Amino acid sequence: MSLTERKKEILRAVVEQYVDTAEPVGSKTVVQQLGTAVSAATVRNEMAELVELGLLEQPHTSAGRIPSPAGYRLYVNELMRRHKLSQDDTREISSSLNLLQASGQEQSLIDEAGRLTSRLTTYPAYALSSMTGDITIARFDLIYVDSFTFIIVVLLSNDLVKNKLVHITSPLQQPQLVKLSTVFNASFTGLTEERITTALISATERALNDASGLVAVIAGFCIELLCEVKSAQARVSGELSLFDHPEYQDVGKAQRIIRYLSDDNKLTRLPSPESAGEIKITIGPENLADELRDSSVLAVRYDAGDDMQGLIGVVGPTRMDYSRVAAHLKYIAQGLGELLSGGISDKKINELGDNDIEE
Question: Environment class of residue 188 by beta-carbon count within 10 Å: exposed (0-12), middle (13-18) or buried (19+)?
Answer without folding.
Answer: buried
